[in-house]
Structure formats: C-alpha cells, structure tokens
Amino acid sequence: MKAIRHHTKCRATLLYVERWLRAPVSLADGATQQRDAGTPQGGVISPLLANLFLHYVFDEWMRRNHPGVPFERYADDVVCHCRTLDEAQALKAALEDRMAQCSLVLHPQKTQIVYCRDGNRKGTYGVYQFDFLGYRFRPRFARSRAGAVFVSFLPAISPSAARAIRQTVRRWRLHCRHTTELADMAQEINPVLRGWLNYYGRFYRSALHAVFDTLDQYLVRWVRRKYKRLKFKVSRARELVVKIRHQRPSLFAHWALAPNGGR
Fold first, then answer.
1. How many angstroms from the chain centroid is the CA of residue 189?
2. DSSP at 152
3. FRET pair for 152, CA 20 to 30 Å: which of 43, 56, 83, 198?
C-alpha cells in the first residue's frame, strides 16, 4: 500500500506541474497569452523547476563528462573555469550540443569566453570581464601585504547592481521627508543599507563609495529643506552632513565605510 500511495502521490504532483506549465499567462494589459513551452517568467514555481531540470541537464552532465572543470551555478547563471582557450572553446561547443539535446539554447550574447587577465596572465583577448550574481569580475588594482600594488582579477559591485541601488535610493525621496527626524529615518532604512553592505561589501569594498554618494546627496537636500537658513547654501548643508557624520558615525549604516576606502 505504501508503494502504491507513493506512486499515486508522485503522479498527482507531475499532473500539477504539467497543468502549471500549460496555464496561460496574464499580461500587464489584462490580456492572456497561451504557452506551449517553458516556464512563465517570474512564476512562483519557475526557479524550482529550472533548478531541478538543470541539476540533471548541466550539473550531473558536467561531473560525468568534464570532471576536471570546476563550475558555479546559481539558477541558470553559470561560470565554468577552464585552463586554456582550446579547453574553453571545446566546452562551449559541447554545452551547445548538450543544451540542444534537451531542447535548450545558450544565450547568444551572455555566453562568452572571458580571459581572466591579471599581473601573471598578461595575454590579450577580446573579453576580459563578466558579471555574476551582482558582481563584475575584471582586472583591478590590489595591494599585497607588503604594500606593493599589483593587478589581480577581482570582483566588485557590478554597474547594473549599483544602478539598481541608486534607483531604490531615489524612490525613497528622503529629501521630501524633512518633517521626519534624522534618527527615525536612519532606523527605517538601515536594515536595507546593512543588507547591501554585507553582500556587496564582501569584495573590493571601496567600490561602494561612489554608490552611496547618491544617498549622501539626498541627505544634503534633506538638510536644505529641514533648515530654511541653508535652503540656498549647498556647501554649508554639505558641511553640516559631514559634521553629523563625524559626531555620529554609526547613525547611517553606510557611514561605517572607511573614509579612504578599503578592499
């Protein structure tokens, strides 16, 4: 009975998944679109199905056929580490065949071979950077423990992630909340700031200074609206924000960044 019950439960689950995949999609204008392949973009079950599918289509296939190639995969975003250009080209061709066998295709623009150039790898190649999980990996200056400056292939917050943070800060419209106390405003947004810092501040932390400059500019605008005497005095308002930062460096979470950067 247990085996029969388990089989019935699995069949019911498969039928539910099949119904989900065949269900039409409601568009923003209210129209419905029939689908005959793939999972709906943004669907609740789509990431789960994609992970299950790619576990067998990609992960297990790589372990069987290319055990010497390390890789990282998050959902459908993958980075494979090859030692030579010939190995990378052969792997790309094999992946195209593998995806075709499973009715999939590699993204023509995003699928590319990248040369991880640094102080030891000084060759030339058309592409030397890539984005992965909100980070951009490319050659960057680094400093050794002895203080020597050299070039290393390092991650830092990607331009698209930085742009998304700036857009979020703009949507907060902090300068329009001049009736709110600064401490209350900081308490409200600090959890979000700490999340950004904890994630994007893991590597090349100094790249975050330019990102959070936007937030400090809105704080200057908040000061100009809060205090009428500073309405037309941008420099004085900026000096006041700097003074508050020195007096209360832990007020806003992003003020914990070192003034001169840090990597």
1. 20
2. E
3. 198
